[in-house]
Write a structure and sequence with these properties.
The structure holds two protein chains of two kinds. By secondary structure, chain A is of the alpha/beta class. Helices cover 36% and strands 30% of the residues of chain A. The radius of gyration of chain A is 23 Å and the shape is elongated. By secondary structure, chain B is mainly alpha-helical. The chains are: A alpha/beta, B mainly alpha.
């Protein structure tokens, strides 16, 4: 069902006027829920968010958000979105209540409702007492929470969060992740662009990995972590010969020492790989001493995905 | 309700309520941007310091009208009763306070949004760059119209009440003013709003935006005057002796547009007085300034930064 998708990209490319190719032929379906958009700095995450908002026009391809083609109706799409930019974007001379209410009005809420909603969402993010203070005196954590409050003030279907924990200390980060993790419970899907894989692993049920503007992987977080990992194989001797044999069968192998190697297992073909290890050891006359499964973290997986 | 103490505050869990009330579309967002821009410019819902400048300037701009009405009242039974210290035509935009107000307000409307990088937040709403430009121009035009029109109302109503011949006779004698003033003030307001916002949009610093406007006004006035007088105009007697070089004066254009609204021709004692095609030239330059300023603003806000 297309309407169940948070975002759909088909052959999506974007080249900046400077010539930089930020996205290249990106095709991906992203389900609703909390989705981590993962990539290194410059991977194209912010560009994808701005394309989703209709602030940039694709060089090629198309993008849909909540079932609507952005190119056909960017204004209509934005009516369903909230956006939290990475950079500082709040006027320091205004109070949090004024800023959030103002942006609520700009989202189409009547003035009275906007003020009421601003009060509610600022309470929600823990700024009830500080909301009448000028933002110029806020800590980084309070500013981030204000940015999140303005993103959800109009009760959007989807929020696009660009590096929501950037610059936060451990406590601030914990608070922000707690808030972001609760959005799904409010009926708000979140697309969270970040390079902090720990954050994604904690709050996202889906992961989209991009690098150099290209899609590397898109999957449910749990499935990705569950299915993907390595098996540490210990043999008495001759690990190098077993590694060569497995490599010949196009299995990714890392030789640890003469008696140990890590064999990459990935998704559906893990049974085949384990059979190859067993049969290969038998063919080479090696005594298999141990096979231990080790799950990868998202960090390892991401680094592993890089070319 | 649960609470969790944290350094610098506490997160109170009051839950989340989806919004199920009325929700406007793009039109509501545009109207909100106009309303919020006007509110900010007038210092409404801001500290008293932000209110001082706009409201005292409005007060100062109204003083000539009050004095004129007072003089009319004092001299109502004397031969001096027919003498006007200031006419409705003169009163459109001659106030230096209005120029100062524009130089302060226009940069305040656009510079902070760019300087504080608020534009990505604004343009994540159902608004485009064109909406932003139209809202800002509309807001400043409306404020300038109010500030230009209110003193005229004081002047008109005040005179109507104090003149010897009576209110109805005054109204009948000055019926044309009832359309001339709003039209002239509206054209004046649109001109300064677009020009001032375009100059302000070139920078992120309010002070630079204000100085840019004042510098444009004074430099253009000086250059234009030098060229006009170098062409043979006599300082003592400009009558029928101006030249089209006067069109270079950005201060002159809206005043001559006002002439066209009130008189049907440009004031012969002005810098362009007596020049061949002065009226058409004024209209063309007016249109070019407004269109050029709007074009620049649309170009400037075509992309979010």
């Amino acid at each position: 069902m297309v309407d169940d998708l948070l975002l759909r990209a088909e052959g999506l490319s974007f080249r900046y006027p400077s010539g930089t190719l930020a996205l290249e032929e990106l095709t991906v379906d992203v389900a609703r829920g909390s989705v981590g958009l993962v990539g290194a700095n410059g991977a194209g995450k912010t560009t994808l968010l701005r394309l989703a908002l209709g602030q940039l026009r694709p060089t090629a391809g198309r993008i849909e958000v909540v079932g609507r083609a952005v190119a056909d109706d960017p204004i209509g799409v934005r009516a369903h979105l909230g956006f939290m930019p990475e950079h500082d974007c709040l006027p320091p001379d205004q109070t949090a209540a004024d800023v959030v209410a103002t942006l609520g009005e700009l989202s189409g809420l009547p003035p009275r409702a906007a003020r009421q909603r601003a009060s509610e969402v600022l309470d929600l993010v823990g700024l009830d007492e500080a909301r009448f203070r000028p933002i110029g005196g806020f800590s980084t954590g309070m500013r981030q929470r204000t940015k999140l409050a303005q993103a959800i003030v109009a009760d959007p279907q989807v929020v696009l969060l660009d590096e929501p924990t950037a610059g936060l200390d451990p406590i601030g980060r914990e608070e922000m992740l707690t808030l972001v993790g609760r959005l799904a419970g409010f009926g708000i899907s979140a697309l969270i662009a970040t390079h902090l894989l720990d954050d994604v692993q904690r709050v996202c049920d889906h992961v989209v990995m991009i690098d150099g503007g290209k899609l590397r992987r898109a999957s449910a977080t749990r499935a990705l972590l569950h299915r993907t990992g390595a098996v540490r194989v210990e043999v008495h001797d001759g690990a190098a010969r077993l590694a060569d044999l497995l490599r010949a069968a196009e299995v990714a192998v890392t030789l640890v020492d003469d008696a140990t190697l890590d064999v990459r297992v990935d998704g559906d073909d893990d049974g085949r790989v384990l059979d190859l290890v067993r049969d290969g050891a038998d063919d080479l006359g090696l005594a298999l001493q141990a096979m231990t499964t080790r799950r990868m973290s998202l960090d390892e997986l991401f680094l592993d995905e890089l070319p | 309700m649960s609470a969790r103490s944290l350094p610098g505050g506490a997160v109170y869990d009051r839950g989340y309520r989806p919004y199920e009330g009325q929700r406007g579309g793009r039109g509501a967002s545009r109207a909100a941007l106009v309303r919020l821009s006007i509110r900010r410019a007038l210092g409404l819902r801001r500290s008293w310091r932000q209110k001082v400048l706009p409201w005292s300037l409005l007060g100062i701009a109204t003083i000539p009208a009050v004095i004129n009405v007072g003089v009319k009242y004092i001299t109502r039974n004397t031969p001096a009763a027919d003498v006007d210290l200031i006419t409705f035509r003169d009163y459109v935009g001659v106030s230096t306070t209005l120029l100062l107000f524009i130089a302060v307000t226009a940069p305040d409307m656009v510079c902070p949004d760019r300087r504080n990088r608020v534009l990505p937040l604004i343009f994540s709403r159902p608004l485009t760059g064109n909406d932003y430009v139209l809202a800002k121009v509309g807001a400043l035009t409306a404020i300038l119209f109010g500030f230009g029109f209110f003193p005229q109302v004081v002047l008109f109503v005040g005179q109507m009440l104090v003149v010897e011949e009576g209110a109805l006779d005054f109204l009948a004698e000055n019926a044309e003013v009832l359309w001339q003033v709003p039209v002239a003030v509206a054209l004046f307001s649109l001109y300064w709003a677009t020009l001032a916002l375009a100059l302000s949009a070139t920078t992120t610093r309010r002070i630079v935006g204000g100085v840019a406007l004042l510098a444009t006004v004074f430099v253009s006035a000086a250059v234009s005057s030098i060229l006009v007088f170098a062409g043979g105009a006599d300082v003592e007697n400009l009558f029928e002796n101006g030249s089209l070089w006067g069109l270079l004066n950005v201060l002159e254009i809206p005043l001559r547009i006002t002439d066209l609204v009130f008189l049907g021709h440009v004031d012969p004692t002005s810098l362009v007085g007596g020049a061949e095609g002065a009226g058409l030239g004024v209209i063309l330059v007016y249109a070019a300034v407004v269109a050029g300023s709007l074009g620049y603003l649309v170009y400037r806000y075509r992309r979010v930064q």
